[in-house]
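Researcher: Please translate sequence to structure tokens.
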Amino acid sequence: MIRTQKVMVRLDDGDWLCLPVHRHHSFGSDTYLAKSHALFCPSCQTVWAILKFVDDTEVWPVAQFCENCDPKASVLYSPWYPVPGSLLVEEGWGVIDESLLAVLPEQFLKREFNLHLKAYS
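Model: Translation complete:
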């Protein structure tokens, strides 16, 4: 089933960039249902992104380092943590959300590309 999801990312100036996407509500061969999430940085304690399906009544908090914090400086650090600031991991531990990647608007795709380049440089 395809649903509308609002993808919102907090910008450095405190404003939010919000773009809608239309995506499948399930992933992993339709085994799991995607849920709405608020991505919370455990280091700076900030909600830095919200991925909300329009008709969901709940938004689940998910710990995910923001792009401004260094997970290696955290006592919680693990090499298995995803790229800091990436939106593509909100569906489980280290799982790349391919259904979101497939429908991300260009602005968010460029952002993901740059974050991954920075992380692996």
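Researcher: Any highlights?
Model: Residues 21 and 118 are 25 Å apart (CA to CA).
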